[in-house]
Specification:
- Helix 1 crosses helix 3 and helix 11 packs across helix 13.
- The protein is 40% helix and 19% strand.
- It folds into two domains: 2-147, ATPase, nucleotide binding domain (Nucleotidyltransferase, domain 5, 2-Layer Sandwich); 197-380, ATPase, nucleotide binding domain (Nucleotidyltransferase, domain 5, 2-Layer Sandwich), CATH 3.30.420.40.
- Strands 5-4-3-2-1-6-8-7 form an eight-stranded mixed beta sheet, sandwiched between helices. Strands 11-10-9-12-13 form a five-stranded mixed beta sheet, sandwiched between helices.
- It has helices spanning 60-71, 107-116, 124-137, 157-160, 166-172, 181-195, 248-257, 261-270, 273-278, 284-292, 296-320, 330-335, 337-344, 356-360, 380-400, and strands at residues 2-8, 12-19, 24-32, 39-44, 51-55, 85-92, 103-104, 142-147, 203-209, 213-219, 222-226, 325-329, 373-375.
- The chain has 15 helices and 13 strands.
- By secondary structure, the protein is an alpha/beta fold.
Length: 401
């Protein structure tokens, strides 16, 4: 069975095609600068050179059409006909409380997706545009929505409610939702496989550290807490996002500097985090290199970020009543030995002790203490493809009943 995974942003469309009989990637690529006169297309088949082309892609309909043509390209494609695609999995950022799992896309589901757009006005609308274009141009394929927020819908009220007027939650849906759920679910299951233990038996802390960063506590196969909240702004210090702060600070600075709410939003989301602490640098390789050379500001920025990770590891171990495993994933988590070393220092009381050689090599198992510390590359596209097949299998079972 061939499954296409689509991730539609406001100006980009990432795609990846799988043969799900073997979970082999057949082709992957991205359409960039959608809406511009000069848009770019990059794609690659395993073992082949990357192909780069320029096209005029004015909207998501044209982007999907370009993907179709690419998949069936006589020289660089991998399909004889687009009708070989049986399933399409769509990444959707926010499902609110409406969607607690992946769902087959219908007109009713599409209507509810549009209602959820108010929670993620920058992300859900382009996700929906991609879905609508795909439904029009792949009418023969079964299409599934996979939500970043769904995995965290197992959190209990005491974990997702804020200390705010309860009416805000009941009337406006103000609560912790969490994000990166597809990644957290995937790497947690991979950790169980690597440790050869039942997924439902483990207490796992996941450190998803990239330009966007979040932590998750996974107990007995369920997310019980996560660092991102009502929006992806809460929690970890990220490339340009501030993470956890005193909520009075923005109010104070608005008064002090005469800022508008839009300007403050720009500062918190695009000019804070590592960019704010270092004076503009967001490339972690550069931050680490300067820190190792003795640059005090960059070393301090790295210390602030890794200290935040360490606090979350401890807090989530307490929340779960124990700890069986810590997992690092995403760009920084997978590739930065110094980040992992600093984040795990002084955690011997939790059984965490790194093997310096294994850590330096970015090995899968990087610890020598009783609590395993793993480095697991995330694969959200494969997770979406798997989720899509599970939804279809469940539908078949229901029909048979």
């Amino acid at each position: 069975m061939k499954t296409l995974v689509l991730n539609c942003g406001s100006s980009s469309l990432k795609f990846q095609l799988y043969n799900m009989d073997t979970e082999e990637v057949l082709i992957k690529g991205i359409v960039e600068n959608i809406g511009a006169k000069e848009s770019g297309l990059k794609y690659q088949k395993p073992g082949a050179e990357k192909v780069q082309e320029e096209h005029a892609v004015l909207d998501h309909d044209q982007a999907i059409k370009l993907v179709q043509e690419t998949l069936c390209h006589p020289e660089h494609g991998c399909l004889e006909s687009i009708h070989e695609i049986e399933t399409i999995g769509h990444r959707v950022v926010h499902g609110a409380e409406t969607f607690t799992g992946s769902v087959l896309i219908t007109e009713a589901v599409l209507k509810k997706l549009k209602e959820c757009a108010r929670f993620a006005p920058l992300h859900n609308p382009p996700n929906i545009k991609g879905i609508q274009a795909s439904l029009w141009q792949f009418p023969f394929a079964r299409q599934v929505a996979v939500f970043d927020t769904a995995f965290h819908q197992t959190m209990e009220p005491h974990a997702y409610l804020y200390g705010l007027p309860y009416e805000w939650y009941k009337k406006k849906g103000i609560r912790r939702y969490g994000f990166h759920g597809t990644s957290h679910n995937y790497v947690a299951r991979e950790a169980a496989r690597i440790l050869e233990k039942p997924f439902e038996s483990l207490k796992i802390v996941i450190c998803h550290i990239g330009s966007g960063a979040s932590m998750a506590a996974v107990r007995e196969g369920k997310s019980i807490d996560t660092s991102m909240g009502f929006t992806p702004l809460e929690g970890m210090i990220m490339a340009t996002r501030c993470g956890d702060i005193d909520p009075a600070i923005p109010l104070y600075m608005i008064e002090e500097e005469g800022l508008t709410t839009h300007q403050m939003d720009e500062i918190l989301n695009k000019k804070s985090g590592m960019a704010g602490l270092t004076g503009g640098e967001i490339n972690m390789m550069v931050v680490e290199r300067k820190a190792l050379k003795g640059d005090r500001q960059h070393l301090l920025a790295l210390a602030v970020q890794t200290y935040r990770v360490k606090k979350y590891i401890g807090a989530y171990a307490a929340a779960m009543g124990g700890l069986d495993c810590v997992v690092f994933t995403a760009g920084v988590g997978e590739n930065s030995p110094i980040f992992r070393e600093m984040a795990c220092s002084d955690l011997e009381f939790l059984g965490i002790e790194l093997d310096p050689n294994a850590n330096e090599k970015n090995a899968i198992q990087i610890s020598v203490g009783p609590t395993p510390v793993l480095v697991i590359p995330t694969n959200e596209e494969l997770a979406i493809a798997r989720e899509s097949l599970m939804v279809l299998e469940e539908e078949v079972k229901l029909r048979k009943k």
